Amino acid sequence: MKHQINRVRHELQRRSLVVKAVEHVTPNMLRLTLGGEELSGFTSLAPDDHIKVFASEGEGEGTAMRDYTPRRYDAETNELTVDFALHEAGPVTAWASGVKVGDEARIGGPRGSLVVPQDFDWWLLVGDETALPAIGRRIEELAPGTPVTSIVAVTGADEEQTFQTEANHEAIWVHRAAAQAGEAEPLLAALRRFVPPSGDGFIFIAAEGGVTRVLRSYVLEELGHVPQWLKASGYWVKGAADTTEKFES
């Protein structure tokens, strides 16, 4: 069946790993490469899967956990790459900012994957810094020649990223202040200029919850996009720690 989207469940596992490399992709995007025997058999079937990353909140304060995207998994080297947007506050971001090669890293999941087939005629990926790992992975995993447009809000040119892909990728970067991350207008203005190509397209939206709601409404009501060919997620919610928001297709 054409455009068959499937949910796949995985056995939930917790893993104790080792930090093998630390690098800055941009000034505010930190990339950790993780490895270790317990990573063997790791499965991530969709670019927007999420894993739990665990960090101690301090002596006697328990353990914090946050959702992050598996940016890349290399089964041959048994290495997992995870990107952290450093403008986010919280104990896991603080842990990532101070981590060193050789330190322990604890993760869990992914619990499941929403597998979207590559038989769509075009793709549109919209989001903020927190969505860049998922957006970048999707761009890099699309088939050669596939038309894909990304519209991503960042704080400036130094936060723009390049992706290694054979897809036909058009990158649209929206510059706005970090304080505007919870405002829809910067991304909405860019989205209004997007003209959907002919054929069937899949749209992915991930940003602050209120921003995602506005963008999703525009795509469904103004563009008339097929709801089943849209995935919209609030990767964070302004003023609420460790909170996400899901939207039904």
CATH topology of the largest domain: Rossmann fold
**Percent of sequence in beta strands:** 35-45%
Helix content: 10-25%
As for the number of domains, it is: 2
- Overall, the morphology is globular
Number of helical runs?
4
Number of strands: 15
Mean pLDDT rating: 94
CATH homology superfamily name of the largest domain: Nucleotide-binding domain of ferredoxin-NADP reductase (FNR) module
Largest sheet: 7 strands, antiparallel
Give start-end ranges of low-pLDDT stretches.
none
Characterize the structure shown.
It is a single chain. This protein is an alpha/beta fold and 249 residues long. It has 2 domains: 6-113, Translation factors (Elongation Factor Tu (Ef-tu), domain 3), CATH 2.40.30; 118-246, Rossmann fold. The protein is built from 4 helices and 15 strands. It has helices at residues 91-98, 132-141, 185-192, 209-222; strands at 6-9, 14-26, 29-35, 51-56, 63-68, 70-74, 79-85, 104-108, 112-115, 122-127, 147-154, 168-175, 201-208, 230-236, 245-246. The strands form 3 sheets. A 7-stranded antiparallel beta sheet has the order 5-4-8-2-3-7-6. Strands 12-11-10-13-14-15 form a 6-stranded mixed beta sheet, sandwiched between helices. Strand 6 and strand 7 form a beta hairpin. It is globular. The two termini are 19 Å apart. The mean pLDDT is 94.
